[in-house]
Amino acid sequence: MARGTTVLLPAGPPLSRAGQQTAQYLGPDLWSEGTGKVGAYLGQGPLSWTLLQPDVHPQHHGVGPANRQQVQKGLGAQSPGRAESACGATGRQPGKIATRLPSKHPVSWPPSPWEPTMPLPGHLLPALVLLLAGSPGRAWTPSTCRAPGEATCNFVCDCPSCSDETQCGYHAASPALGVPFACDFEQDSCGWQDISTSGYSWLRDRAGATLEALGPRSDHTLGTDLGWYMAVGIHRGKEAAGATLRSPVLWNAAPTCELRLWYHVAAGAVAELRLELTHRAETLTLWQSSGPWGTGWQELVVTTGRIQDDFRVTFFATRNATHRGTVALDDLVFRDCGLPAPQAHCPLGHHHCQNLACVAPHQLCDGEDNCGDGSDEDAYSCRHHIATDFEMGLGLWNHLEGWARNHSTGAWHPAWPHRDHSQNSAQGFFLVSVAEPSSPAVLSSPIFQASGAHNCSLVFYYYLHGSEHGSLQLFLQTENPGSPQVSILLRRRCGELGAAWVRDRVDVQSEHPFRILLTGHTGPGGVLSLDDLILSEHCQPVPELSSPPRGLWALALQPQPSSLPPQDFCEPGHLSCGELCIPPEQHCDFQQQCEGGEDEQECGTTDFEAPAAGGWEDASVGRLQWRRLRAQESGGPGTDAGGVAAGHVLSLQRAWGQLAAEARVLTPALGPSGPRCELRVAYYFHGHPQEISCNFERDTCGWHTGHLTDAHWRRIQSHGHGYDHTTGQGYFLLLDPTDPPARGPGAHLLTQPQAPSGPQECLSFWYHLHGPQIGTLRLTVRREGEAEILLWSRTSTQGNRWHKAWTTLHHQLGSGTKYQLLFEGLRDGYHGTMALDDVAVRPGPCWAPRQCSFEDSACGFSSGGQGLWTRQANATGLASRGPHTDHTTETAQGHYMVVDTSPQALPHGQVASLTSEVHQPLAQPACLTFWYHLSLRNPGTLQVHVEEAQRYQVLSISAHGGFAWRLGSVDVQAERAWRVVFEAVAAGTEHSYIALDDLLLQDGPCPQPASCDFEAGLCGWSHMPWPGLGSYSWDWSSGATPSRYPQPPVDHTLGTEAGHFVLFETGVLGPGGRAAWLRSQPLPATEASCLRFWYHVGFPEHFYKGELRVLLSSMRGQLAVWGTSGHLRHQWLEGQVEVASAEEFQIVFEATLSGQPALGPIALDDVEYLAEQHCWLPATTQGDTLLAASVPTVVGSALLILVLLVLLGLVGRCWLQKKGGCPLQGEMAAEASGFDNIVFNADCVTLPASLTDNQ
What we know:
Layout: E1 6-8, H1 29-33, E2 50-52, E3 117-119, H2 125-133, E4 181-183, E5 193-194, E6 202-206, E7 228-232, E8 241-246, E9 250-253, E10 258-265, E11 272-279, E12 282-289, E13 297-303, E14 307-319, E15 327-335, E16 351-352, E17 358-359, E18 386-388, E19 398-401, E20 403-407, E21 429-433, E22 441-444, E23 456-465, E24 471-478, E25 487-494, E26 502-508, E27 514-521, E28 527-535, H3 552-557, E29 575-577, E30 580-582, E31 617-618, E32 624-630, E33 648-654, E34 665-666, E35 703-705, E36 714-717, E37 731-735, E38 746-751, E39 760-783, E40 789-795, E41 803-810, E42 819-843, E43 851-852, E44 869-873, E45 895-900, E46 911-915, E47 926-934, E48 940-947, E49 951-957, E50 966-972, E51 979-986, E52 993-1003, E53 1035-1038, E54 1060-1065, E55 1075-1079, E56 1086-1097, E57 1106-1114, E58 1117-1126, E59 1133-1141, E60 1146-1153, E61 1161-1170, H4 1191-1216, H5 1225-1231, H6 1249-1253
Antiparallel strand pairs: 1-2, 1-3, 4-15, 5-8, 6-7, 7-15, 8-14, 9-14, 10-13, 10-15, 11-12, 11-14, 16-17, 18-28, 19-22, 20-21, 21-28, 22-27, 23-26, 23-28, 24-25, 24-27, 29-30, 31-34, 32-33, 35-38, 36-37, 37-42, 38-42, 39-40, 39-41, 39-42, 43-52, 44-45, 45-52, 46-51, 47-50, 47-52, 48-49, 48-51, ...
């Protein structure tokens, strides 16, 4: 805005408090950008701003009354002279005015006799710019965002950080469009308040802390006893009581607003649950139930309808004298509740509301306030429509029989609508079917003129609830003289659609006069209602032809053919076949009762060629629906599953429903079924082919989430502990098992079918597996007509960092077969996350992988045509040679590589080679580790060679085996491409073998056995979950890496944030004795060796205690040799213990709890095992060595001697006093009142061999 700019304010009528005129200047960037949200929310009234240069007439720039750039009416009215503070704006260009004013609070101008043209004085304009845009040269960003009352808790993020939508009964997780506002009660109560007036009240609780036996065993969010929820405890009184939980004040719900929540009721716990909405002086019942209650957590979905201004939601739990127990709520979600935001321009064909919101054309005059200000439903815009809301009668519609006009006040039926659709009020009227279940209720329109090329559109709202057998049908009857009257079915809805008003629309083009019939059948216990029938402008009645309809109504009264049994031969709901009457429970039970199989027809088995579609019925109430169409009309592949173009399919199509629910299609009630019952479906996904290579910064490219599970991969932006690999601030794909609550085993991420570009392709990607209970990530490839092939997998946490993986795709180019890639996340609990980023495909093979567990394949290893090395598992127990379990999973289902060294398979002195694929050159020395298993009988020698320019041996192992896997390691330096070769040299021993598993190549030299600084990894320490301990794992992280769990800020090795350590978050444990183990490689027997380590224990309060113990594990069991428990200490502490064992053993670090669960880490760093070396003199540490047998006696004797020496010292001092008294007697009596502050430290203890032998 240049100096001296003139601002035109058109003259208008005087302003009033009720209907004032407001306007704001938006800044020049509004018009230059042309898209996105308006820079400032605009005022109401016929005023507008017009920008002119100084001393230039409007016509000189083509800016006249007809084509000025104007911003018309705003969002709301405001009292004169009042201006609200801005919520804030960021990222605007210097020198631009960038205000963001709440949509309900535009700046208002007081009454003024200003002329249409008002130049701003030059000395005032800079002040105005500075006031709105901040200091010159930078954008203004307020330190806090203060939204006005009506802009708080209105389901719209008016502030950039969405801080105006917290403590609203929900927390805004993200200001992104479409993200629901949810509360899981994990952090707080989200603003919900208990307003009960009796001892029966609501409180925030969790299963791990409750003493109520009838409460839920876990929350719904996490599925564990550590998750939080709102609960009503047991009331001990004898009188009836109620507990009331109320939301904060909420504002302006859109017509599509729905509330989803999960509730848990112990059997017989309460007499009634009720959810109410209070708006102004009226209270609406959204839902109520007196049971029966299902087991476990139950989902509840209710719609609020359009709510203007403020309202509250209240949840009631009522008990009487005979019902006692607990009720719990969790995971409340408000979805699609916000009104549309103002837009500078609308998409082509959309309607621009007076408040600058945009709505689709079909939302005009549809009986719902979609704009938010009612401008899409005003009388002038809809003057050519004919609307019947049944408030004053039936309008043009003819009530034939079976319908009654009613309202919700005093409703007695449990399925009765609690409010009408027109007014969203219990006082509003609607039509309800009162016909008997055996006869239809019929409502007829007048006869309309032929519409010709135009559409006569009918929008109507219906309510179908309470019965699976209710139905609503819409027929078209044409009035064609000389032709029989025919009723054409245009729409059919049946079954249970929920307690909500559902919108639908039909478009009619007819060359003859016609009428519309709405017929309904009410199922047992069900209710069918109609409201808001809206006819478009091309529906013109013909008064002289508006006679009662014939045909359909007469057909309903016709007697049934005599060939059928009499009407009362079978009871209602029973199927008549021959002389049998089949009850409903025997319909579709997979057992044929009728001779012709009529009872098993239309039971879901279908190719959709018959119009009945096998009994499948669309039960959608949202914007999508399922329809039976010809394949070439469905927008799909053009043929059905059998390749027939004229065949029919069930296709997903757009629908007229206003709700956000998913599209559903249902069979009739089936079963019971046997244990091997299968459902086979041929399905087709239509989409545009896109690249597999993707960094997910713009979109998901050619990847999409699978729909066969209820957990999903989501594309999210880096925030908090979640960060991408590409930039650290971009987007990536995340699988969080707690968001949304998912009960399935995992989630699928797939590509579209891809054509291979060559015989080999290299697929690389970055993955992140982190958390104490995360599960497995798998990559498979699918080809039509072939079994799914597993390419790659990882199980359990891989540390809090991104890892790169790659695998080679092998294709047969001549076959023309396409392939499909699938990432599958299989969870093992609710603690941790999986993530993917930077997927890439390039021609040619990959380098050899740096890590191989042999679970998915042989990782490219070749036996040179001999076939002596084989990949196997021992799940069946029939493997002729090899260990019973692998090393990776420690189960019989795990895979490894094995060679039979028996004389008949490999004669004495013969060699069996196992050669890797080509590894890429190494920029620095690396350590190659592997686990090997040798049979008890001498199998021979295992040799390891490296092939670079030449072949040289780096390791040779020749020893008798045992029952354990052992760790081998070699240092590798290779400046060029290289391979590793494992050779088994047979010793000629019967029943012998050599096995390999878990190869890993890491940068840096190989550490000593059981020693590790954790900078490059775990150094052979195993963190796999141990059976019986809760399936939890130690993790690997650094202080600089964002984490969702508490962790030390620095490591001990480097003393910086960049250093690494291992840790375990004990907050995931329950109050029981579950734990997590970190195990060393098997170590040889020792008489005395020293174990040194540094540990970090942190807990918030003395009530919470975590424990770290050192165990020695051998074939004889476990022996605890050291332990400590602690609270919050911001330091690393040293621990050491001398160990001895007469047989091979493992060192185990065990993390567990001795109190209530709390977020607190136990971390380890710089573990050093000094074989056959004694520990140093004991240092003062915080650890307590656990002693066995006679060791406590020695400590007790030392304590007794110490006490005697102290007493002798005191006696001597008293004797030296010349005046016969002992002046310290009173002090000693005061100081020796207890032993609370006495701590014994004995961190260096040698255990005699006799003690370990007796374990």
